[in-house]
Amino acid sequence: MDDGAATESIITAALSTLPPSQLVSLSFSLFSTFHRHHRRLSSLLSSPTLFSHTLNHLYSLPLQKKSLLIARHLLSTLHLLTPFFPPHSATPFSASISRRDLDAALLLLLFCEIRQHDPKLLEASPPADWHRVLTKYFFETLLSLSGIKTGPSEVLGCFIEILVKCKRLAGAAGCRGGKARRDVPASAAVVVAPLPSVEVGSGGSGECVICREEMAEGREACELPCGHLFHWSCVLRWLTNRNTCPCCRLRLPSDDVSGEIDRLLEGLVRVGRSQLNGDQCI
């Protein structure tokens, strides 16, 4: 997925495909989430003790763990889109984030917000004064992160900004440790749960691309959500190592944070690029 303005354009194009009723529903869902985050951040800054514990927690995390923290926050935000964009089905991966991690993520994003808008503000203050500086800045500016001053008609723009920022921060340190995209196994819930079983019709259904053997007529085959058929034994072994269809590379849910972000973003990007290219499938 592209960065910066290109990413914003693609996401905006994807959102523009939603009918007005769904846009309103999504806007109110996002507004409620941002308002809850604002209240949480307000509570964090209003309590010196809670602020100190959260800051110490951030200090204890290496850069890669901070990246993973933002990635989990990004995933929980992306999950708000699943009722509106493919894949529509809920992911087995828990999209929730613990209160401690949410506090840490919101505080980290607040630090990043300040560094972006006023890089010298924290540098000019000793760490002992950061609580006072952050509190003053937050309550004076009511950051776009909070959404508290944003009505439902404007919240989608705020949402796009947060997606782009979180993706950039999560990828900066590389929540995969700087490695290129790797295969991740499908979620155990997908593998264990009964996938659709269909009987191969008259004339067979070609070959199973995993083992290269014919799909014999009358044999029970496994059908993935994309409609491709495979021998049960073949596809179950396949899904324990990777979460993509062997034919079309459609991603199935996984228990990996980065894998789930890729899966949800790819669906959004596919819709957005199709819209930007005149509704032609990409």
TrEMBL record:
GO terms for biological process: ubiquitin-dependent protein catabolic process. Pfam families: zf-RING_2 (PF13639). GO terms for molecular function: ubiquitin protein ligase activity; zinc ion binding. The keyword Zinc-finger applies. Residues 208-249 form the RING-type domain. Keywords: Metal-binding, Zinc, Zinc-finger. PANTHER family: E3 UBIQUITIN-PROTEIN LIGASE SGR9, AMYLOPLASTIC, RING FINGER AND PROTEASE ASSOCIATED DOMAIN-CONTAINING. This is RING-type domain-containing protein. It comes from Nepenthes gracilis (Slender pitcher plant).
